[in-house]
Amino acid sequence: MRLTLLLASAAALALTSTANAQAPGQPAQNAPVQDVVVDQGVLRPFPIAVAAFSGQNGADISNVVSGNLRRSGYFAPLDPSSFIETNLTLANAPNFPQWTSIGAQAVLYGSVTPRADGRNDVGFRLYDPYRQCQLVSYQFTATQEQW
User: Is 97 left (phi over 0), alpha (psi -120 to 50) or beta?
Assistant: First the structure.
């Protein structure tokens, strides 16, 4: 946002300089030259809602995912106690207004289904609640040790 305002200010300054110009597209002879230097910024972690995965070890898997996202420094997983909608399933999209109302810019949830051979089928979906669209959906099979 600040960079946009800074660039808009620089553009306005440039337009003012060219408005006083002798010839179109040429700056005025006495117009001061302005340099704009952007040498720092602010990175704010992306607010994401990581809902508990359904099924066996689902809550553990979502805790691992949430912890990994937080430790990356790029994400700020929201407190699960703030979630209005619970019990999400892969069969349905989330109720988008309930997620935007708590400030979630992404919603991640999934399920874990055990197989007879000891492996697990894991699936997840990632949604953008503001654009109200699915960003990614993925399913895979893993051993108990791999999750």
Answer: alpha
Count CB-CB contacts under 10 A for residue 96. Answer: 18
Question: Which three-class secondary structure state does DSSP give residue 113?
Answer: strand
CB 110 within 8 A of CB 122: yes
Token couple for 56 = 């066996």
End-to-end CA distance of the chain: 39
Question: Rounded distance, CA 21 to CA 78, Å?
Answer: 53
- pTM of the complete model: 0.69
Question: Quick one: pLDDT at residue 126?
Answer: 98
Mean pLDDT of the region 8-26: 47
d(CA 52, CA 71): 18
Helix (H) or strand (E) holding 126: strand 120-128
Q: Which of 17, 16, 8, 89 is CA-nearest to residue 51?
A: 89
Task: Go through the chain and tell me how many residues it has.
Answer: 147
Residue-level pLDDT at 17: 44
Structure tokens at 6: 């800074």
